[in-house]
Amino acid sequence: MLSYQHAFHAGNHADVIKHLCWIGVINHLKKKNKPFTLFDTHSGAGEYQLDHAMSAKNKEYESGVSKVAQLSPQSSLLNHYHTLIQTYFDKGMYPGSPMLSANLVREMDNVHLMELHPAEFEKLNHVIFSQQHAAKVGGSCHVHQRDGFEGIKALTPPQPNRGAVLIDPPYERIQEYTDVSVTVKSVLQRWQQGQIVIWYPLLSARADKKSQACSAMIASLVELGIPCFQAELTVIENTEEAGMYGSGVLVLNPPWQLDVQLNDALQEVAPHLGDNTAFHLTWLVNDN
Ligand SMILES: C[S@@+](CC[C@H](N)C(=O)[O-])C[C@H]1O[C@@H](n2cnc3c(N)ncnc32)[C@H](O)[C@@H]1O
Asked: Which UniProt keywords apply (predicted)?
């Protein structure tokens, strides 16, 4: 059953770390004048109205993107993120990962957006279609109503084989942690150079089983021996009852210098996201 709706969480601290990382990956792919393909396995609705009842319920964006919007960033990746969100933020909106991809790609690039939830898929399809109609987004965007774990296996490797995958499941079911590791292994068997960004929650002892499943997911991917780092942003103290106290991204085959750029951006923004925030980045398999 699909019950997760990203509108409740749009623009929160988890979106900040995830979207910074995804923008960094896309920017690097754009350095070469050669086409690439982006895949978003769990796309969500594409963009969010922050005064909508769902986003306004807990106003999670207030401790995330609202803080970013108030800054005059020094680091280049944070500055780029700030510029991209400002256009939306001025209209009371926040762009999801599909709109970040659609706004950043060039005419020669491809984007595959997958979303299983029928209502979220309809919203995504409408947003992408209307932006394409108004010629506001670049590249060729394909919207699929399908299971992202099945879809990414069917659609990879892309031709030509440059590109990246964002995997951002709701993790409502514990099985999703295993689904991620099985899927990523299968994709990398056929597409060794694919750059893969996996978002994951950091959960307190209250959700011990899911927390263990998350650690097992990361450990099984590290065993592949492919270059990878994890970057984690914690926003509250990890007490037993804290629930989600932060989140992280595991990046496989990361582009050159993404670690430095992400580190600079998050070291700069983290102190503005709360009194108890911390950020660290760790290489788990280093290719040096
Ligand atoms: C965390 S949200 C995605 C947010 C989006 N990536 C962003 O950053 O803006 C997760 C989405 O995955 C969808 N979903 C859940 N299971 C799925 C599956 N097996 N395949 C594709 N989409 C799925 C949910 O309906 C939800 O919209």
From this structure: Methyltransferase, RNA-binding, rRNA processing, S-adenosyl-L-methionine, Transferase
- Give the list of residues 6+ apart from residue 188 with CB closer than 8 angstroms, or none: 194, 196, 224, 226, 252
Which one from 168, 179, 275, 287 is the annotated catalytic residue? 168
Count of beta carbons in the 10 Å neighbourhood of residue 115? 28
Give residue-wise pLDDT tens across range 242-280.
999 999 999 999 999 999 999 999 999 999 999 999 999
How far apart, in Å, do the first and last CA atoms of the chain sit?
44
166-209 pLDDT per residue, tens: 999 999 999 999 999 999 999 999 999 999 999 999 999 899 99
Q: Is 280 annotated as a binding residue?
A: no
What pLDDT is stored for residue 139 in this prediction?
Answer: 72
* Atom of ligand 1 at shortest range from CA of 148: 20
Contact criterion met (CB below 8 Å) for 238 and 7: no
Question: Is 168 annotated as catalytic?
Answer: yes
Give me the pLDDT at residue 288, please.
65
CB 196 within 8 A of CB 187: yes
Cis amide linkage into residue 160, ω under 30° from 0: yes
In total, the chain counts a number of residues equal to 288
Closest to 270 measured CA to CA, from 73, 6, 37, 89: 73
CA of 95 to the centre of ligand 1 (A): 14
- In whole angstroms, what is the distance from residue 136 CA to residue 194 CA? 27
Residue of the nearest CA to atom 12 in ligand 1?
Answer: 42
CATH number at 6-285: 3.40.50.150
**Domain coordinates in residue numbering, the chain:** 6-285
